[in-house]
Write a structure and sequence with these properties.
This protein has 336 residues and is an alpha/beta fold. The chain is built from eleven helices and 15 strands. The strands form three sheets. It has a seven-stranded mixed sheet with strand order 12-11-7-10-9-8-15. The chain has a six-stranded parallel sheet with strand order 3-2-1-4-5-6, with helices on both faces. The chain is globular and about 50 Å long. The protein starts with a strand and ends in a 6-residue tail after the last strand.
Length: 336
């Protein structure tokens, strides 16, 4: 039985807590939040207790799930690492590159697992894209395209809206949203060599942000990433496409739902098969958390590493620098 403690009980924590509560072999022990009332609400809904200090939480748990805002990730990760606790930390790993480097290097030095919650790797449709690439179905990847577009996070309705609106805290849509697609693009195409970006991050538009990012990979492949906080409310669209020298694989959330399959059977001909989006093995956040536990317990090798989380932050910050200067950024010279 693994005992889990959660640091930060804001919006993303609810998704994690739903998963932890359902997972066999897990005891959801409790919570620490700088807003005690938020931790109280989590305890009332999911069980467990509220801890007054981080040290008290660390004494009671085996693993720590960090769901605090990105600006607080460093202090929480370093504290958990000093206590010797295995850590899963929400993305982005940190707001600043130096902080992310310190977090990763400290955990490596102390021998503490640090798992960045880059959940897109666990979405069934995205992991299937990666499987087809690894199987050689499209040949050598040459062009990557993805989009992750929605509205600004809850302006005027949520306590977190000021955080997202403050670029110095959130890093805008590039660090908060594009970090997903940057990580997935690296998973598909390898290391990024150069970044060029344009967007609205520095345009002074309240509750709007939008970016177009071009990546050149060391392999020679080219990546195009679109991310947005400028779409109408209730609108959210994602897509991914990878073209290789012998084929193409793609998925688009505007197409037919991916949960319906039509399969040919020798006995029955064509038949339709569906799967529930709430099945534990299909729900990406649950799959991510379960994989983290499997890694810690030695049953799996990490699908995503702390160094992957660090590199996703580095490329995202390079894209922000490119938007600021209007110039491409060579990764070899960035953040050295």
């Amino acid at each position: 039985m693994q005992r889990i403690g959660v640091i930060g009980t804001g919006s993303i924590a609810a998704v994690h807590l739903d998963g932890w509560r359902r997972m066999p072999g897990i005891e959801l022990v409790g919570y620490y939040d700088i807003v005690p009332e938020a931790a109280d609400r989590a305890a009332q809904r999911y069980g467990g207790r509220v801890f007054a200090t981080l040290d008290e939480l660390f004494d009671a748990v085996d693993m720590v799930d960090i769901c605090s805002p990105g600006t607080a990730h460093k202090e929480n990760v370093l504290a958990a690492a000093a206590a010797g606790k295995a850590i899963i930390c929400e993305k982005p790993l940190a707001r600043h590159l130096a902080d992310a480097v310190e977090m990763v290097e400290t955990c490596e030095r102390l021998g503490v697992p640090l798992f960045p919650a880059q959940v897109v790797r666990f979405f069934p449709m995205y992991s299937r894209v990666k499987e087809r690439i690894d199987a050689g179905a499209i040949g050598k990847p040459a062009v990557y395209r993805s989009a992750r577009c929605g509205s600004f996070p809850r302006p005027g309705r949520d306590f977190s809206a000021p955080y997202y609106a403050d670029f110095h805290q959130s890093g805008g849509v590039v660090l908060d949203v594009a970090v997903h697609d940057i990580d997935f693009a690296r998973w598909c195409c390898g290391e990024v060599e150069r970044v060029f970006a344009r967007g609205l991050t520095f345009a002074g538009k309240e509750f709007q942000d939008h970016a177009l990012i071009t990546l050149r990979f060391a392999s020679g492949a080219i990546g195009h990433i679109e991310v947005s906080w400028s779409h109408p409310r209730t609108t959210f669209h994602t897509r991914v496409e990878v073209a290789g020298d012998s084929g193409l694989v793609e998925w688009d959330s505007l197409d037919r739902p991916p949960l319906l399959a039509e399969m040919y059977d020798d006995q029955e001909g064509f038949r339709r098969m569906g799967s529930s989006p709430t099945a534990d093995e299909d729900e990406p956040y649950y799959a991510e958390l379960a994989h983290f536990v499997d890694v810690v317990e030695g049953r799996a090798t990490p699908r995503v590493t702390a160094r992957d989380g660090l590199e996703a932050v580095r490329v995202a910050l390079a894209a922000i620098e490119s938007m600021r200067t209007g110039q491409p950024v060579a990764m070899q010279n960035f953040g050295g």
